[in-house]
């Protein structure tokens, strides 16, 4: 398994962040918020999962913000397989994220992803 995200797996443009905020589903996980948007299937484009992380200056020092961003990127990287192929994820850190153990953060992230199945994200009902 790769140990880092490629440039194509990261959200960089403000328009991409805005699209996820406007069109995606949002789940509050306590120490962070997850926003997920499934991308329509474009012809000729490879399936890719992308992440954007946000840690505002209200969190505190740059050390705390960077730690929070590293934790969120690692949650995404190690658990990508549970997400649909074409999806954009934005994770927003809260001040308390650095006080949680990685295992607790992973449990909360996995629960959020399970609640956001592909059909639930698009507004439909899950198929039994």
Give your account of this protein's structure.
By secondary structure, the chain is an alpha+beta fold. The protein has a domain at 34-120: Ribosomal Protein S5, domain 2 (2-Layer Sandwich), CATH 3.30.230. 35% of the residues lie in helices and 19% in strands. It has 4 helices and 4 strands, in the order H-E-E-E-H-E-H-H. A hairpin with a 3-residue loop joins strand 1 and strand 2.
List the helices and strands and how they pair.
Layout: H1 14-23, E1 25-28, E2 32-38, E3 49-54, H2 62-78, E4 87-93, H3 102-115, H4 118-121
Parallel strand pairs: 3-4
Antiparallel strand pairs: 1-2, 2-4
Quick summary of this structure?
By secondary structure, the chain is α+β, with helices and mostly antiparallel strands.
Using only C-alpha atoms, the radius of gyration works out to 14 Å
Series of H and E elements: HEEEHEHH
The CATH architecture of the domain at 34-120 can be given as 2-Layer Sandwich
Shape: globular
The main β sheet shows up as:
4 strands, mixed
% residues in beta strands:
15-25%
User: What is the level 1 CATH name of the domain at 34-120?
Assistant: Alpha Beta
Number of helices: 4
How many β strands by DSSP?
Answer: 4
Q: Could you say what the CATH topology of the domain at 34-120 is called?
A: Ribosomal Protein S5, domain 2
Indicate the percent of residues in helices: 25-40%
Structural class: alpha+beta
Q: Reading side by side through the largest sheet, how are the strands ordered? A: 1-2-4-3
Low-confidence runs of at least 5 consecutive residues: 122-128
- Cα end-to-end separation: 32 Å
Residue-averaged pLDDT:
85
